[in-house]
Amino acid sequence: MDLRLSPSLLSGTARAPPSKSYTHRAILAAGYAAGATVERPLLSADTRATMRAVEAYGGTVTEDGDDRHVEGFDGRPDVPEDVVDCANSGTTMRLTTGTAALGDGLTVLTGDDSLRSRPQGPLLAAIADLGGRAESTRDNGQAPLVVGGAIDGGRVSIPGDVSSQYITALLMAGAATSEGIRIDLETELKSAPYVDITRELLADFGVDTEQTDAGFEVAGGQSYTRDDPYTVPGDFSSISYLLAMGVLAAPDGLRIEGAVPSAQGDTAIVDVVERMGGDVAWDRDAGVIEASRSALSGVEVSVADTPDLLPTIATLGAVADGDTHITDAEHVRYKETDRVSAMATELGKMGVETTEERDSLTVHGGESDLTGATVDGYHDHRIVMSLAVAALVADGETTVRGAEHVDVSFPDFFDVLDELGAAPTRVE
Ligand SMILES: O=C(O)C1=C[C@@H](OP(=O)(O)O)[C@@H](O)[C@H](O)C1
Ligand SMILES: C=C(OP(=O)(O)O)C(=O)O
Fold it and tell me: Which atom of ligand 2 is nearest to the CA of 91?
């Protein structure tokens, strides 16, 4: 499906969707437990993949209005009866590869074209070092994967600059091993706040983890337990698009609800927009952000901790006056698509000059007006949403191709655009 948008002025209130990262972890943690209720999880293509995986390992997930009740497999996953299809979700594949390593038999994990091109090698090597079986069927470090155990735990070293999801996977599975897992990082950890989210959530499920001089450690023989329902906070990666809509296209302001503080590194978007000169106010107690149209200037931003913000910052940089230099971005190339290159190419079609290096993207903003164009969403929800935001301030009409992929993290994105006044047209 394509999305057609014209320049628009926005106003009103939008509610942030629930956090994708917290939802994946809460559903899987409830699976590792005897069971738990997850209140207002994100219901999206990616989180449904994690729900399916939990069921494949012997859990059940039942609907209760907006909540989901999970009957868990209590630390002892079954061997799935069928292939585990992780669809487009890197988080599902990495985290449940850890689960597969606890099983007595073999699990096959696969996904869509994009997921089958993303790196899994370091996690497979770590599981093999722990005595499990972990193979890429094509021997290229990519899915389909064949993974089995049962691992008892031990000590492993792993690079920190490919995906933090490997660390999350090992910590979550490690608690259910007999000996626990000690993880030594071979290189500096990128996307580090995602491990903070994991450790915070595990603590909320009664599982202790430690940060060590070399990395992280989780003791074995721990039980996941959660008596109270677990409530998922709002998603700051999704909030980044709403915030960008506010400072680019809302002269009378936009109100964003559901913006409660949490361990999400992507809360940094508030600071980035403020540094660019954006008129933003975040009432942390109320969980409300107000943002209004402002003249923006380019800034230098590291996305070492916040890879998912790169597409949004690139769009903001396209409108801002001067250069926006986005650094520490190599790991942003390992996502649903190479997002550094995708944003450079597609903003280029809208008349924006960029300079791309392996580890950075510089957006030369403000030199000419953004021009409406037909742009490609690369089957990637974040590219689609960032280009849709750019379209709101482009001169003329923009068509974003493959826009249905917003379903991965922000299924109501088009409705929200509509309610705020953008009148998007969906073209099948
Ligand atoms: O653990 C998570 O929930 C995520 C970790 C990050 O990936 P990497 O750790 O691979 O950078 C992020 O990009 C992804 O959207 C979600
Ligand atoms: C990279 C992302 O997710 P995942 O790694 O789970 O596919 C994302 O949501 O931007």
Answer: 6
CA of 241 relative to ligand 2 center, distance in Å: 16
Q: Which CATH number fits domain 2-17+234-427: 3.40.50.2300, 3.30.565.10, 3.40.50.300, 3.65.10.10?
A: 3.65.10.10
Q: Where are the beta strands (DSSP E) in 6-59?
A: 12-15, 35-39
The pLDDT confidence band at residue 428, using thresholds 50, 70 and 90, is: confident
- Residues composing the chain: 428
Arithmetic mean of pLDDT, 83-107: 98
Binding-site residue ranges for 3-phosphoshikimate: 20-21, 25, 163-165, 191, 308, 335
Give the pLDDT score at 95: 98
Ligand minimally distant from the alpha carbon of residue 28 = 1
**Beta pairing, strands 254-257 & 12-15:** parallel
So what's the pLDDT on residue 40? 97
Tell me the two tokens of residue 197: 């989210």
Does the beta carbon of 68 sit less than 6 angstroms from any atom of ligand 2?
Answer: no
Provide the residue ranges of all domains of the chain, joining segments of one domain with +. 2-17+234-427, 20-231
Determine the atom of ligand 2 nearest the C-alpha atom of 24: 6
pLDDT at 367: 65
Calculate ∠ Cα 189-158-186, nearest 5°: 60
The mean predicted confidence, pLDDT, of the chain is 97
Q: Can you give the pLDDT at residue 409?
A: 98
89 lines ligand 2 (CB under 6 A): yes
Query: Does residue 104 contact residue 150 with C-beta atoms inside 8 Å?
Result: yes
Q: Give pLDDT tens digits for 55-79.
A: 999 999 999 999 999 999 999 999 9
Q: Is 10 helix (H, G, I), strand (E, B) or coil?
A: coil
